[in-house]
């Protein structure tokens, strides 16, 4: 094997490592600066704990994880759009407002969908626990 190929492999690994490093910096930035991301993460922790307690099936976990991942990812894209607009203009501009509103709306729609998914998955399980434990006590 030539030294050119060995050097290329190391260079590719270094580039890959930097790419992951930049991505983690982005995640850290959004977590530390965005109140909504902190709220989403708090809800995520509760949902994951509840999922473990209720022993979700693999397919239920799949839906829950896609719902969580979608909300978190869209929140990050929303933040990127907001920061880019803030970089371009500090002045009020109707198009800048609209772009920010649309990005926030995308997060809202997916978050509502995630809540619906959660209700479909957790609702019957929690209802069953409530009916079998709470109503029998009375």
TrEMBL record:
Indicate how the chain sits in the lipid bilayer. Multi-pass membrane protein
The region annotated as signal peptide is: none
Report a single Gene Ontology molecular function.
ATP binding
Q: Name one GO biological process term.
A: phospholipid biosynthetic process
CDD domains in alphabetical order: UDPK_IM_like (cd14265)
The cofactor note reads: Mn(2+), Zn(2+), Cd(2+) and Co(2+) support activity to lesser extents.
Q: Which domain of life is it from?
A: Bacteria
Gene3D superfamilies in the cross-refs:
1.10.287.3610
Binding-site residues for substrate, renumbered to this chain: 15, 75
User: Which annotated residues bind ATP?
Assistant: 15, 22, 34, 82, 100-101
What PANTHER family does the entry give?
Answer: DIACYLGLYCEROL KINASE (PTHR34299)
Its name, as the record gives it, is Diacylglycerol kinase family protein
Q: Which organism is it from?
A: Bacillus aquiflavi
């Amino acid at each position: 094997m030539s030294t050119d190929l060995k050097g290329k492999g190391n260079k590719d690994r270094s580039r890959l490592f930097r790419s992951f490093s930049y991505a983690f910096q982005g995640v850290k930035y959004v977590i530390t600066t965005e109140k909504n991301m902190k709220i989403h993460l708090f809800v995520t922790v509760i949902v994951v704990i509840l999922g473990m307690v209720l022993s979700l099936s693999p397919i239920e976990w799949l839906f829950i994880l896609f719902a969580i991942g979608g909300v978190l990812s869209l929140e990050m894209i929303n933040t990127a759009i907001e920061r880019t607009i803030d970089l371009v203009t500090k002045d009020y501009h109707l198009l800048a407002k609209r772009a920010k509103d649309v990005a926030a709306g995308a997060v809202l729609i997916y978050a509502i969908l995630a809540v619906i998914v959660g209700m479909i998955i957790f609702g019957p399980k929690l209802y069953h626990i409530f009916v079998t434990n709470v109503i029998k006590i009375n």
